[in-house]
What does this fold into?
Amino acid sequence: MDLNKIYTESLQKFVQDHLTEDPAHLLFKHSGKTEFDLKLAVQQIAARQKAKNKIPSWAKNPKLLFPASISMEQASSEDTARFKSNLVTGKSMADLTGGFGVDTYFLSKNFEKATYCERQEELANIALHNFEQLSNDKFTVVNRDSLEFLNSYQESFDLIYVDPARRGGENQKRYKLADCEPDVVNHWNLMKSKSTSILIKASPMLDIKQALIEIPDIQKIWTISVRNEVKEVLLFWKKEEIEGPRMINCIDLHPDGERSFSFTFEEEEKSESNFGSIGQYLIEPLGSILKAGAFKTFGIKYGLKKLHPNSHLYTTEQLPTSVIPGRVFSVIQEISSPKKNLKQLFPSRKVNVITRNYILSPDEFKKKHKLKDGGSQFLIGTKVGEKYTLLLAEFVK
It folds into this structure.
């Protein structure tokens, strides 16, 4: 299919002229009045509106085509794709689960040649069109099952990248690697025979320790959050890599700069937390750190006391001089009677709510007390020792 004949200059101009308008209204207003496919144009406008923050450099490129919404939702963000591109390098790479092609494109920055595999013909056609706009002859698009392709491929890649599909029948979500498609666990040896390194993008819900049991060869792990929201878990293997401690690298990507924390599971198992009562400051580790399970090593590294073994909130009277990879709050007061005190403290009913190891979730707490997010202050519900406690605090940094 020649998409250039469908994605005409007049269609592109319409998209650019109406980027900020309501797609449904455009479809109604211009129905039967265009020489091009109006539904496609409106779909492109809707997709670019969604991509504005997720993939900004692509959203700004008028020549690129965007797929249906489900593929947009599953695509990597530009932030995480750029981060991954700095982890790997070589002459040739293959993306076994190409999708929209965001990861393929950014990973290819440090490779001479890139092979994109995708079973869905429509997505493969869109990727081919976009790669032609973005680059020269670096990309090879393969529209077939990636495992069949690997079995028939005679050469070897410097990198195989795979983002297994995590949805089964009836849109059921899957988190174990062996339950996803392609099954990287049972086809691990095949992938190792076709590449000198493998990078797996897994669900943020992945049980990392279970994944290491399934694939013991994994040498490095990254938990990636964007603006403190966990997005990806990355698993990496490289042939003939010098054996050493298996590092878990917790990364938060933020416009103000990247924050990180690294540890090993062995360190975590050997560590013992220090516990204490509430001090002047409360610290909540980055989501990527909590995802990785650095519950004891985090507190020890920064000299912090833990409130409870299962609360994962930390406290101190004085902040360390080093930058803490987490959110820091200054404690204002303990709230002993929420039903009475909250009406007085928040007549507008606006306050941000965080709960860790508490009797209610944030949504349950807000519903019970008729609160909504907003303002500069936080209510933090947690367990200190054997007591559930509600604290009023202000965000410091």
Remarks:
- The chain has a mean pLDDT of 92.
